[in-house]
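Fold this sequence, please.
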Amino acid sequence: MFSNIPFLKKKKTQTRKKIVPNTTRNVFSDDDSRKFKKRKKSQFKNNLKSLSYAFKKQNFKTISLVGIAFVAFAVVFLLVGPLLKVQTILVTRQDNIININQAYSSLEYIRDKNILFLDTGEIAARLQKSQNSIQNIGFNVKLPNSIEITLKAYPPVFQLTESLILENGSLLTKETTATYDVPMILLQGSNIEEDLSFGKNLNVSEIQKTKLLLSELQKNILGIEIDTIQYFTSEKEVLISDQNQTLYLFDINASVERQIEQLSIFQKESGSLNEKKYIYIDVRIPQKLYVCPIEEEFSCRGNIDTIYGESVLKSLNVPEEIS
């Protein structure tokens, strides 16, 4: 009687089919497969790097020792080997004053020495000691084994009969074929040329003042033509004679400008100095100028003879009976 009531009816159980996965089917997608392969490859590379690092670390000490030994050998070879030993020495000079053969002799000691350790200061000192005429020295080192040396001498400022006086006061024997456009000068003093030939130099400042004196004299005194120049080394005085054999007496220790100015004023006041009016004109004393006229020739020449000796008179071709 209750069978027709809906909620009392039993529900029929519905059974569903279970889906069993196919074990033969690939459970990974294509993307997963690629990632897996990359991981494997990366892991392989990392393993190789680890092995390489271990090898390098293990052999670093050995490689370092071999490298240090190689560098040390190379350095020793360069220092004591023949590659950097001086073989070629070339000396050039900028004038004929320097003795080139003497220069080569002074440099022979550097042959077969290591070019990296050459002491240019010592080389220059040796060269200048052997020849005091050398003013400047230039060096040009050419690796691996050559050196070029350029020498320049002090310029000549005066010439003697057989010698030159250089700017540094040294005396140099003239070469017979050489000509120099410098004034001739006579040195007056006991054994002065002999002293110079043994290496003694004239005072450089006195030489420079004598050069200045000649230059200012020709620049400021009109019409003067210098005939002879005599330098008295003890008195520090210069006697200059012109074309008329008039003597001009100068003091090298005094102001050159002051003495030239006094002479210039005298020339303006007295007229031309070209005529033979005076035996000598003395401008050595400041603010005073002494002249000895031709009319008093005998006493004038006697004064010169007393002060400087007969050498001055002989250089002027004065007859012996007058002196």
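The chain has two domains: 59-153, 154-323. The first strand starts at residue 88 and ends at 93.
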